[in-house]
Design a protein that fits this description.
CATH topology: UDP N-Acetylglucosamine Acyltransferase, domain 1
Structural class: alpha/beta
Number of domains: 1
CATH superfamily: Hexapeptide repeat proteins
Helix content: 10-25%
Number of strands: 21
Order of helices and strands: HEEEEEEEEEEEEEEEEEEEEE
Largest sheet: 7 strands, parallel
Distance between the termini: 74 Å
CATH architecture: 3 Solenoid
Strand content: 25-35%
CATH class: Mainly Beta
Length: about 200
């Protein structure tokens, strides 16, 4: 019985290692790996070009990193993952400029990090034809991004900052700050209402 469990554990570890190596080989054109990198199954890496950007997606890792189940990394920018940093299951990272994470960063499950916004100022042109605006994101050492949190373009997260579950961060966060509280409310309209439309 004990021997069968040891064999089963060995086989599980062997196939996880094999899968991780296969995934690294499959995505090698995007990766520059500076140490150990473990992929869990179902990771999607998608490079695409924006109109005014001919770059390809680049992912650089410092080592001892894990990218969880179903993570999506897409764009045309550069993603740097610091040493011992972790990206949780089902996280989405949209990188068209540059996203940098420091050491020991914990990105929980279902977190979204996007350095790009769609433009939507003109109501005469469909939003998908108005282009995008990008700004780099910097996440310093020992930051914890809680489950389902969202980090938007241009944000700098200070050392040891904590973002609570579901929080939306669109401004810089100082070191050691705890950021939270998301209460949904109407924040404006991008359509100009005339008197006869009310």
């Amino acid at each position: 019985m004990v021997g069968a469990i040891k064999i089963q554990n060995f086989l599980v570890l062997f196939f996880l290692l094999l899968f991780s190596r296969f995934t690294r080989l499959h995505f090698r054109r995007y990766l520059t790996v500076g140490g150990s990198l473990k992929f869990i199954r179902g990771v999607v890496i998608r490079s695409f070009r924006l109109k005014d950007n001919n770059n390809h997606l680049r992912i650089l890792t410092a080592g001892q990193n894990t990218i969880g189940v179903g993570v999506i990394i897409q764009g045309s920018g550069t993603l740097f993952i610091g040493k011992k940093s972790f990206i949780g299951d089902c996280a989405v990272i949209g990188c068209n400029a540059k996203i940098t994470t420091g050491r020991d960063v914990m990105i929980a499950q279902a977190v979204t990090i996007r350095d790009t916004d769609h433009n939507f100022e003109c109501t005469e042109i469909p939003i998908n034809r108005q282009g995008v605006t990008t700004e780099p994101i910097t996440i310093r050492d020992d930051v914890w991004l809680g489950h389902g949190s969202i980090i938007l373009k241009g944000v700098i997260m200070g050392v040891d900052a904590v973002v609570t579950a579901g929080a939306l961060v669109n401004r810089d966060a100082p070191s050691f700050a705890t950021i939270g509280r998301v209460l949904a409310k109407i924040i404006g309209s991008h359509k100009h209402v005339t008197n006869n439309q009310v």
